[in-house]
Amino acid sequence: MRIEVMPNQIWIDIDQPKITTEYQPPSLVFPMTFNHVFSDRSTLFFLNLEVKFSEIKVGSQIFHLELSPKIRSETYRLEFALFRELLHLIESKKEEKKESDITWKLSIKGKIYQRATNGALVDERSISSECEFRTSISEWKVALGLENYQFVLLPNELLDELETLRKKWGFWKIDDVIAKFLDVYKGERVEISQQFLVTLYETRSIRDKLAEFADKSANFREIRVASLYIDPTGAEYLIKMLKNGVKVKLLTRSKVDRKAHHEALNVLKQLGAEIRYDKMLHARIVIFDDIAAIISSADLDSEGLNNQKQAGILTFDRIVVRDAITFFDKAWEMAGKSQS
Predict the structure, then answer these.
(1) Which CB contacts under 8 angstroms, 24+ apart, belong to 237-240?
(2) d(CA 312, CA 296)
(3) In the 8-state DSSP scheme, what is residue 120?
């Protein structure tokens, strides 16, 4: 596909995108060639590029390039990483739309200038263009690692239930859920002692697990929490626990210059939470009695639970939980009762 900026003088050629699995995660690659015909001036490209599938944003890039008078064209491979969770979202949307092939929408916006030999900018043009490209189902299956898979038709209600279990159990794929059921059918004892949790794109399993434990918190006696930062988003779960009569011990950073952080602490104090401060704190842990612990990179704030890319483990392993309690209790004893 060709985008003419100045007909027959400045243009951009865009080849059919390919999905490469040379590295992990797979990438969607757009080969783009930038062209001009001038021998007495440079051409400068300042572009914003964005790729979408349906309403799902695949990625965006800011691209700068200057073509000198001696160079008539340059080709670049603009890559957009297809993380596993993003692949899952695209596959889900594809099934919802009943489409086999994948249609990508590439949006290109920005400014294009020309620079004379004396350095002065002699021309300015705007560009705003949108292109569509299709990826075949066979190439898509390679990207997903599905060459050895077959498609199975399942009722939407069953798929919804499997998807709910996938998120609840912390699995990446629905076939992991089915594999667990097969283990049960074979008579094997199935225990999920650990789950991998994330904040990534639309999956917020760290937050979801906190919400699940908060809903069941009437069964707990004490919650130990270590979090550098906290705001009303994260405090919401601790507030629910406090209102259920649970003892909450919160270990956090001292001298934090965030208004939302102090607002959340004030509310928790009023509801009876015990709070201590440690300027060297870097751990993020939530421990539920001696039953379970969430050990992750996420703070109990909106960024950590909703926006940033975070990861961690939910464990029910008694030894690991016990060790987490030992760590917390030692840090608690060393922490101060005031922020000074």
Answers:
(1) 237/210, 237/211, 237/213, 237/300, 238/214, 238/268, 238/273, 238/300, 239/267, 239/268, 239/271, 240/214, 240/215
(2) 4
(3) -
Q: Specify the CATH number of the domain 2-144.
A: 2.60.40.10
Residue whose structure tokens are 């914003």: 48
Q: Answer for the pair 2, 24: CB distance below 8 angstroms, yes or no.
A: no
The CATH code belonging to domain 193-334 is 3.30.870.10
Domain residue spans of the chain: 2-144, 193-334
Task: Give the per-residue pLDDT at 172.
Answer: 63
pLDDT at position 252: 94
**Residue 151 confidence (pLDDT):** 62
Q: Whole-model pTM?
A: 0.52
Residue ranges of the chain whose pLDDT lies below 70: 24, 99, 143-151, 170-172, 188-192, 340
Q: Pairing mode, if any, of strands 102-116 and 285-288?
A: unpaired
DSSP codes, 286-332: EEETTTEEEEES--BSHIIIIIS-EEEEEE--HHHHHHHHHHHHHHH
**Residue 175 has what pLDDT?**
78
